[in-house]
């Protein structure tokens, strides 16, 4: 556990700052930017995905472009053909703030998983964390799962991360985080910062 605590001390200020920035996304009308970012991230590098969002926005394609026009700016995102179509489909949720603000974090996640093409529990949790809406939803990608194995929170990465299994591992991660005195929404940020050298999204 010493390694986790040392990394937390090292990145604590940046993590706290980032969490405050997440809360401001909701107020600054940038929900759709984060929404598309989380659509892009599966099997792609986070920084490349965010830069793609910024490039699309700069060229007025985030809210208006068709897949053929977006193609030029999406080469660094895996499965960009599929994901560009998902951006177009996601525009019907542009005003989703009005929908999810009436829900608690778990209700909002369920709604996103059921209604957004391209969102599973990981992507929905990521999005809600990144807009400062959720504090207790875990982003269970393979990187996080490997760390959970390392610290003996789970025994193996499940072959099929079902809804039931996702919730089971999420609950274990939350309990582990609390047991070592770190807020659950910050633990994955610590592990990512350890790997990349900085706190991102």
Describe the structure.
Helix content is 64%, strand content 0%. It is an all-alpha fold. The protein has two domains: 2-23 and 138-196, Helix-hairpin-Helix base-excision DNA repair enzymes (C-terminal) (Endonuclease Iii, domain 2); 25-130, Endonuclease III, domain 1, CATH 1.10.340.30. Helix 1 packs across helix 11 (184-196), helix 2 (31-40) packs antiparallel against helix 5 (80-90) and helix 2 packs antiparallel against helix 8. It starts with a helix and ends in a 5-residue tail after the last helix.
- What structural class do you assign from the helix and strand content? mainly alpha
CATH superfamily of the largest domain: Hypothetical protein, domain 2
**Known CATH architecture of the largest domain:** Orthogonal Bundle
Please write the string of helix (H) and strand (E) elements. HHHHHHHHHHH
Mean pLDDT: 93
Top-tier CATH class of the largest domain: Mainly Alpha
Shape assignment: globular
Helix content: 55-70%
Radius of gyration equals 17 Å
Indicate the low-confidence ranges by residue numbers: none
Q: Could you describe the largest sheet, including whether it forms a barrel?
A: none
CATH topology of the largest domain, what is it called? Endonuclease III, domain 1
User: Span between N and C termini?
Assistant: 23 Å
Strand content: under 5%
How many helices does DSSP assign? 11
Care to count the β-strands? 0
Number of domains: 2
């Amino acid at each position: 556990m010493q390694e986790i605590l040392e990394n937390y001390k090292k990145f604590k200020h940046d993590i706290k700052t980032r969490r405050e920035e997440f809360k401001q996304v909701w107020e600054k009308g940038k929900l759709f930017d984060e929404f598309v970012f989380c659509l892009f991230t599966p099997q792609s590098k986070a920084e490349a995905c965010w830069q793609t969002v910024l490039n699309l926005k700069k060229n007025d394609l985030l809210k208006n472009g068709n897949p053929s026009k977006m193609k030029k700016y999406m080469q660094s995102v895996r499965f960009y053909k599929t994901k560009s179509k998902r951006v177009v489909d996601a525009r019907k949720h542009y005003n989703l703030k009005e929908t999810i603000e009436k829900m608690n974090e778990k209700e909002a996640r369920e709604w996103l998983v059921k209604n957004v093409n391209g969102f599973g529990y990981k992507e929905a949790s990521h999005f809600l964390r990144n807009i400062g809406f959720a504090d207790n939803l875990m982003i269970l990608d393979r990187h996080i799962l490997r760390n959970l194995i390392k610290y003996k929170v789970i025994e193996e990465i499940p072959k099929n991360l079902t809804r039931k299994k996702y919730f089971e591992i999420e609950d274990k991660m939350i309990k582990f985080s609390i047991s070592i005195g770190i807020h659950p929404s910050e633990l994955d940020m610590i592990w990512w910062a350890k790997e990349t050298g900085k706190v991102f999204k």
